[in-house]
Amino acid sequence: MIKVILWDVDGTLLDFKKAEYVAIKKCFEIFKLGECTDDMICRYSEINKRYWEKLERNEITKPEVLVNRFKDFFLVENIQTNCANEFNDEYQLQLGETICFCNHSFELLKGLKGKVKQYAVTNGTKIAQDKKLQKSGLVDIFDGVFISEDVGCEKPGIEFFEKVFNKIGNYDKENIMIVGDSLTSDIQGGNNAGIICCWYNPKHMENNSDLRIDYEIDDLQKILDIL
User: Fold this and answer.
1) What is the pTM of this model?
2) Nearest to residue 182, comparing CAs of 202, 164, 196?
């Protein structure tokens, strides 16, 4: 019986791609960098993805991710890199301005409140995540929020989950489920922690890993069938 759900935020409960799209275009306006095309955002997304995967493998630090991804992006687009730090600071603020729920996630979590314990587990920056969770209203539904900057380590590391377990109380691991869209962060983390793993895969991405996936869903509402 599942008593606790650990929810990933970006790409699972909230549509990160839409927020990213709006935030980058707004930052280009603010810093007067010219037009930011859709192709440019696609190139940035690939660079960003590679940097976060390096972080998940403990190859680099989060500050290196946040600034160097924009430096690399600007170099590719022939833009001066001297504003990368300030650009990232503004980008974090802008990320919290666009709230778009995946699969009516707000209503889903609200309906589950009081039936199971629900916690946010996220590697996103504190400034962006605090703003998103407040503006979306999700913070009022969660029983707790675990942002890696506060926890002191990142998913998928076992240390992150051990600190979460120490905070939420005494639950058997077969009663805890993580739900997330990232194989390398959420599902790998769930495997490391020995808890139930539910992969949210709305685009039906191919799984080339050997990770244990207990449930795979393409719509968050299917969580109700699992419970």
Assistant:
1) 0.92
2) 202
